[in-house]
Design brief:
Elements (H helix, E strand, L loop, with lengths): L23 E7 L7 E3 L1 E3 L8 E7 L5 E12 L10 E10 L15 E4 L7 E6 L2 E16 L5 E9 L5 E6 L5 E6 L4 E5 L1 E2 L1 E6 L3 E9 L4 E4 L2 E4 L3 E8 L3 E8 L2 E4 L3 E5 L4 E18 L4 E4 L2 E4 L2 E9 L3 E8 L3 E4 L3 E6 L3 E9 L3 E4 L17 E4 L2 E9 L2 E4 L14 E4 L5 E19 L11 E7 L9 E6 L9 E19 L11 E10 L5 E8 L4 E4 L2 E3 L4 E8 L3 E8 L2 E4 L4 E4 L4 E9 L2 E5 L6 E7 L6 E6 L7 E2 L5 E3 L2 E6 L6 E6 L2
Parallel strand pairs: 3-10, 16-23, 23-30, 41-48
Antiparallel strand pairs: 1-15, 2-11, 4-10, 4-12, 5-9, 5-11, 5-15, 6-7, 6-10, 8-9, 11-14, 12-13, 16-18, 17-19, 19-22, 20-21, 20-23, 23-25, 24-26, 26-29, 27-28, 27-30, 31-40, 32-33, 33-36, 34-35, 36-39, 36-40, 37-38, 37-39, 41-43, 42-44, 44-47, 45-46, 45-48, 49-50, 50-54, 51-52, 51-55, 53-54
Length: 665
């Protein structure tokens, strides 16, 4: 089970010193009501269980106080006397209130968190209604500054090895209710108060004050009176659009940590400084091509490192700023963030790779249909077989989609279903994204999923095997990727739950994005086109072995000259012939420019001059410029005549040089 404090930023995390201060004054009390009633607040170490429960109770004081100690009363449920185990340690959290509601703000991390190293001075106080109760206490490593008139919630949780049966003793003097959380993240308001009390130190104090600069960019928690010699913690929290920069005192930097802890020896006045922030959004194209790291929200001017990691059978091409502007081909790079940025990592599949994502393969598939028997992608076909159970195509799991899944995926219709894939060509690698059915609130470990590779069928020996467990990256079920590599080519792969789990065993798994890497890449197609079609002839098109370097040659027709090569509308090269590495399918267009001829008849009176270029050559625009540098080109506004396959334009003969050109709009 993932406990609510795991993986979350804590306002304070430290090991408790359990010595009871001699000078302490009680400032809040909900005394035990004398009954044996318990409100369970314990969990099963190390991963939790469905029997876990967590109790919260509120407190509020008329004036601001520095809480230095917490005392409480509790015990073990007598119904579990034969299975009960001692308390190993306690976890104490203090939460803020959830807006105007009468409940703790469990959406956000606790304001402060503490973990003890033992049972917090457990001392028996007697048997009440058949229940043996104990008193507990500890001194906070750093006083908690409670603001007067503000409601807070304290949560105290016992950690046990056996059945979680420890609970708060019932109390009187409160508002008659408390809050609880069950293991499956269900929250309830429950009648009854929990028995606990709060203390502050009677020792001499020092005033720790804190302000924010610029005003309105953030807030500070922890300022107030602290006993001399105690530890103070100030926590700076930025408002939306800002980030913490540093703490200063008398204009001098003292810390760059937003949680600043120090020993209190005298009055201090500190300033929390904040800066505007910018967001860096990273994308990956295609989504199955790889993963990216480094996105987030950062202070203006931050140097942010970004990393692109290709998926199996893929390679990184470039970073594209704004999704279009080339900004580098180094997968591990750094950029200075001075504005909101969107950067895409461009990946490409290697020639031997085919990706079955159930969105683009043939034949098309759709949500709610049965699993396809065959899918074809990039010249490779895969036959899908349900080894047990039934499978369909879906696009959500109860309205939720795993992080790395996209669009359609394979969905088990019954428990303990498993799959087999048979490919029509030998592979050396297979990767797939998966999700298993363990609930995050139940365990901290996903089930073990496995891949096994065979030459042609399951009747032969296993050539290679891999297994792995998912992680809770999407906060519902554990997700992961399996990557199988074999020294011997294989065509059949089985995916199922592996043996020797060493932990929980799920009964469902979901699959998407099969990345198949062939033992040898298929031939790659090179297509060549001329623009305009009559502009010339081409040589080099055809089906070529993957990785081969092929020469693409363009021969201009009369009246034309070769200009450049384009691929998918993007300038590729002006070299002719062009060496093309057949690392994938290529479609090149040779662009030919018409030759602009100038003719002059000096025997005519007056002298005649005209321009001509081949007719039917596409959209070319005639432009002129005076003989200046740089040229100032403007369209020629004059009638053009068609004469025997040529465009002709008569021109006046004038003093001074005039430049003419044909330009493709």
């Amino acid at each position: 089970m993932t406990m609510p404090w795991r993986g979350q930023p804590l306002a304070l995390l430290c090991v408790l010193a359990l010595c009871h201060a001699a000078a302490a004054v009680q400032i809040f009390n909900q005394p035990h009501n004398g009954t044996g009633t318990l409100y369970q607040s314990s969990w099963l170490e190390p991963d939790g269980s469905n029997s876990d429960q967590f109790a919260y109770d509120s407190f509020q004081m008329a004036s601001s106080q520095a809480i230095t100690e917490i005392h409480w009363r509790g015990g073990h449920d007598p119904a579990f006397v034969w299975w009960s185990t001692p308390v190993l340690s306690f976890r104490v959290d203090i939460y803020g209130n959830n807006g105007n509601l009468m409940q703790p703000d469990v959406v956000h991390p606790p304001l402060v968190s503490y973990t003890s190293t033992d049972a917090c001075g457990e001392s028996p106080v007697g048997v009440f209604g058949g229940t043996t109760l104990h008193d507990y206490h500890f001194t906070l490593p750093s006083p908690f500054q409670a603001v007067g008139g503000t409601r807070y919630w304290v949560q105290i949780t016992a950690e046990q090895h056996g059945i979680p049966d420890w609970g708060f003793a019932a109390a009187s003097g409160g508002n008659g209710s408390h809050f609880r959380r069950l293991s499956e993240y269900q929250f309830q308001s429950i009648s009854g108060d929990c028995a606990f009390s709060l203390y502050t130190s009677a020792d001499p104090t020092a005033l720790i004050s804190a302000t924010v600069e610029p005003v309105g960019t953030g807030s500070v928690m922890g300022a107030g009176l602290y006993p001399l010699g105690s530890s103070a913690t100030l926590v700076a929290t930025a408002e939306a659009g800002f980030g913490f920069q540093q703490w200063t005192e008398n204009g001098q930097p003292v810390s760059q940590n937003s949680r600043y802890t120090f020993s209190v020896t005298a009055n201090r006045s500190l300033v929390a400084h904040f800066l505007p922030t910018h967001s860096l959004v990273l994308e990956r194209w295609p989504a199955t091509g790889g993963h990216v790291q480094g996105g987030g929200v950062f202070n203006t001017g931050s140097a942010v490192g970004i990393l692109a990691t290709p998926s199996p059978g893929h390679h990184f091409v470039a970073w594209l700023d704004g999704g279009s502007t080339f900004m580098g081909s180094n997968p591990d790079t750094t950029l200075i963030l001075d504005s909101d940025r969107f950067v895409a990592a461009q990946f490409e599949a290697d020639p031997a790779t085919a990706v079955f994502d159930f969105d683009n393969a043939y034949p098309p598939v759709y949500p709610h249909q049965t699993m396809p028997s065959v899918q074809s992608q990039a010249g490779l076909s895969c036959n899908f077989t349900a080894r047990s159970g039934f499978w369909s195509v879906q696009n959500t799991i109860y309205g939720w989609t795993p992080l790395d899944f996209g669009g359609n995926f394979l969905y088990p219709s019954t428990s303990w279903s498993s799959l087999a894939f048979n490919f029509d060509a030998p592979l050396t690698e297979l990767a797939l994204d998966f999700c298993t059915s363990e609930i995050a609130a139940e365990f901290d470990m996903g089930s073990l999923l496995r891949l096994r590779a065979y030459a042609t069928s399951e009747t032969g020996p296993v050539l290679a095997e891999c297994s792995g467990r998912g992680q809770w990256v999407g906060l519902m079920y554990p997700e992961g990727r399996l990557h199988l590599v074999s020294a011997e080519p294989f065509q059949t792969v089985v995916v199922d739950f592996g043996p020797a789990q060493g932990g929980p065993l799920g009964d469902l798994f979901w699959v998407d994005n099969l990345i198949a890497v062939r033992a040898s890449a298929p031939p790659q197609l090179l297509t060549l086109d001329a623009w305009p079609p009559e502009g010339g002839t081409l040589e080099g098109a055809g089906l070529w072995d993957a990785g081969l370097e092929v020469l693409a040659t363009a021969w201009a027709a009369p009246g034309f000259q070769f200009s450049h090569w384009e691929e998918y509308g993007v300038l590729r090269s002006s070299a002719n012939p062009l060496a093309v590495t057949m690392d994938q399918t290529h479609a090149l267009t040779a662009v030919f420019a018409p030759v602009l001829e100038a003719l002059v008849d000096t025997g005519a009176d007056p002298v005649q001059a005209w321009l001509r270029w081949p007719d039917s050559t596409g959209s070319w625009m005639l432009e002129q410029s005076p003989g200046t540098y740089p040229p100032a080109w403007v369209p020629v506004d004059a009638p053009v005549s068609g004469v025997e396959g040529w465009n002709e334009l008569y021109l006046p003969v004038t003093q001074g040089a005039v430049l003419y050109r044909l330009r493709r709009p």
